[in-house]
């Protein structure tokens, strides 16, 4: 949508030099910023976020703390295995997994590039159980490993920098992106109202691979249908959860998830 504002020639230059084919999905993605730079910026934003929010410790709530650690570690192990089986372990270089539960009534969870995962306590009643949590964490982590953050930041950069700066940015891969670009892309640190929803393609990919990762980690992928149906019912109110605002959910999406189920179930049964 934002790209439409660019002239065709500028768009041509960006597409020519800025696109990379994703090793897992095969889809061509606009990549103006490097994964390394993004992971570095993500780490700064992640630490800042943790310093400003109440992180739930094992001492404070052992049951909820433990379930987030357990699900996160199982999904990370499944992803490591999946990429190794495809000979793509290098895609995960720089990933140092961390899982945190933070006290917040918001229904939300996210994974930053580099494997920094945060679950909000407000998500737990909607997830309902360990498997529901695995569905959400699998989906969020899939966004990260599929470079969706890198792609969205790049789209924002392309839209905001304008034609004259594009070539210099492309020549200088170490460009520092503005914090507000990062924040607009990442719901965690965004102000209310400026969250950019994931594209349908990104959502579809995160559903697809998130289901596979959760299934490989030993969680029944069927739970995804019930979870997203619960999420769909939470929409429309004044207090629509952040997770729903960044992940538009409707009957089409749920039908798509059902269509993905046979493949996910094969991974679930093959463990
Ligand atoms: Zn998503």
UniProtKB/TrEMBL annotation:
Alphabetical keyword list: Hydrolase, Metal-binding, Metalloprotease, Protease, Zinc
Known cofactor(s): Zn(2+)
Keyword DNA repair: no
Pfam family, one: Peptidase_M48
Entry-linked Gene3D superfamilies: Metalloproteases ('zincins'), catalytic domain
Cofactor binding comment, as recorded: Binds 1 zinc ion per subunit.
Record PROSITE patterns: PROKAR_LIPOPROTEIN
Keyword Protease: yes
One GO MF term: metal ion binding
Cellular component per GO, a single term: membrane
An individual GO BP term: proteolysis involved in protein catabolic process
CDD domains registered for this protein in UniProt: M48C_Oma1_like
All copies of domain Peptidase M48, residue ranges: 90-259
Similarity field: Belongs to the peptidase M48 family.
The protein's name: M48 family metallopeptidase
Organism of provenance: Arachidicoccus ginsenosidivorans
């Amino acid at each position: 949508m934002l790209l439409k504002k660019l002239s065709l020639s500028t768009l041509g230059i960006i597409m020519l030099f800025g696109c990379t084919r994703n090793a897992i999905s095969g889809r061509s993605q606009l990549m103006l910023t490097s994964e390394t730079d993004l992971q570095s910026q993500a780490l700064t934003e992640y630490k800042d976020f943790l310093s400003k929010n109440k992180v739930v410790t094992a001492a404070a709530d052992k049951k909820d703390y433990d379930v987030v650690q357990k699900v996160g570690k199982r999904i990370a192990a499944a992803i490591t295995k999946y990429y190794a089986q495809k000979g793509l372990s290098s895609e995960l270089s720089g990933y140092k997994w961390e899982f945190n539960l933070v006290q917040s009534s918001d229904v939300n969870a996210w994974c930053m590039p580099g494997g920094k995962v945060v679950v909000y306590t407000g998500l737990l009643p909607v997830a309902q159980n360990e498997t529901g949590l695995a569905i959400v964490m699998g989906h969020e982590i899939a966004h990260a490993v599929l470079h969706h953050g890198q792609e969205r930041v790049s789209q924002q950069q392309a839209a905001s920098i304008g034609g004259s700066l594009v070539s210099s940015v492309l020549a200088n891969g170490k460009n520092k992106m503005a914090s507000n670009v990062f924040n607009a892309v990442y719901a965690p640190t965004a102000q209310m109202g400026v969250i950019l929803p994931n594209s349908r393609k990104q959502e579809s990919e995160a559903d697809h691979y998130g289901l596979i990762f959760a299934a490989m980690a030993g969680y029944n992928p069927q739970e995804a249908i019930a979870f997203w149906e619960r999420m769909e019912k939470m929409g429309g109110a004044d207090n629509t959860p952040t997770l729903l605002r960044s992940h538009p959910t409707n009957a089409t999406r749920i039908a798509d998830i059902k269509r993905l189920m046979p493949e996910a179930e094969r991974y679930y049964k093959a463990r």
